[in-house]
Amino acid sequence: MIMFMLILSLVLTTVLTTLNFWLAQTTPDSEKLSPYECGFDPLGSARLPFSIRFFLVAILFLLFDLEIALLLPLPWAIQLHSPSTTLIWTFTIILLLTLGLIYEWTQGGLEWAE
User: Fold this and answer.
1) Which residues contact 80 (CB under 8 A, 6 or more apart)?
2) What does the UniProt keyword field contain (predicted)?
3) pLDDT reported for residue 16
4) Tens-digit pLDDT profile for residues 86-96
5) Mean predicted confidence (pLDDT) in 4-27
6) For the chain, domain boundaries
């Protein structure tokens, strides 16, 4: 059964990749190759750097999203032999993330305007 699933996955992947290369349009026109497709000529450089605050907020979002992924199995973990250990680790994770958020807040890392 495992060998069948591996062969089926390999065949399906090969067929879909071949279809993609065969059916894809590989002749882009001049409008698609232009830097902007909105109808306006570029006014400035297209390589303007992002603010570091944008990346900070994105990383904070990922961090708290990861926290939810770590805490999601908590209701089932309470039924283990030592639920107190589970709760201690849970509160440790929440405490570390809260302290990190408070530190960023006090340092002004979450302020959009300076």
Assistant:
1) 86
2) Electron transport, Membrane, Mitochondrion, NAD, Respiratory chain, Signal, Translocase, Transmembrane, Transmembrane helix, Transport, Ubiquinone
3) 93
4) 888 888 888 98
5) 89
6) 51-107
Report the distance separating Cα 43 and Cα 23, nearest Å. Answer: 36
CB 49 within 8 A of CB 55: no
Could you report the per-residue pLDDT of 32-86, keeping only the tens digit for each?
Answer: 666 665 666 666 666 667 677 778 778 888 888 887 777 777 777 777 788 788 8
Residue 64, phi then psi, degrees to nearest 5: -75, -25
DSSP string of 51-99? PHHHHHHHHHHHHHHHHHHHHTTHHHHTTSS-HHHHHHHHHHHHHHHHH
Give the pTM: 0.47
Structure tokens at 15: 């067929």
**DSSP designation for 113:** -
Rounded-to-integer distance, Cα 7 and Cα 11, Å:
6
The amino acid sitting at 78 is I
Helix axes 52-71, 83-107, angle to 10 degrees: 170
